[in-house]
Amino acid sequence: MVVTKDVVLPEESELTVNEVNLSASTLMAGSFHLGKYCEQANNEFMLCRIEENDATKCVNEGRAVTACTMEFFRKVKHSCKDQFSQYANCVDKSSGDYGLKQ
């Protein structure tokens, strides 16, 4: 997409959301279950991006993905924090590509 004077960009306030402030190993450890938990929100966002061919028109869908991710990790923290932290630590220390190896 070429940015010209006709392109209307969202205001900064529209783009400001809470970020998911987690390490790569934590995200990798939760990725499979996160993907299933937030599948609907992710699909809506990707569908919007494909249909609109303009990510600036999909800000609300992107916010929904972030909100779903935050909700997922809050539930993980509440229900199985110790086990998940141990698994994320294992993923972090086991290899450079976050794969589990012995």
From TrEMBL:
Its main location: mitochondrion. It comes from the Eukaryota. GO terms for cellular component: mitochondrion. Keywords: Disulfide bond, Electron transport, Mitochondrion, Repeat, Respiratory chain, Transport, Ubiquinone. Signal peptide: none annotated. One of its GO terms (biological process) is mitochondrial electron transport, NADH to ubiquinone. InterPro entries: NDUFA8. It is found in: Mitochondrion. Belongs to the complex I NDUFA8 subunit family. Accessory subunit of the mitochondrial membrane respiratory chain NADH dehydrogenase (Complex I), that is believed not to be involved in catalysis. Complex I functions in the transfer of electrons from NADH to the respiratory chain. The immediate electron acceptor for the enzyme is believed to be ubiquinone. This is NADH:ubiquinone dehydrogenase.
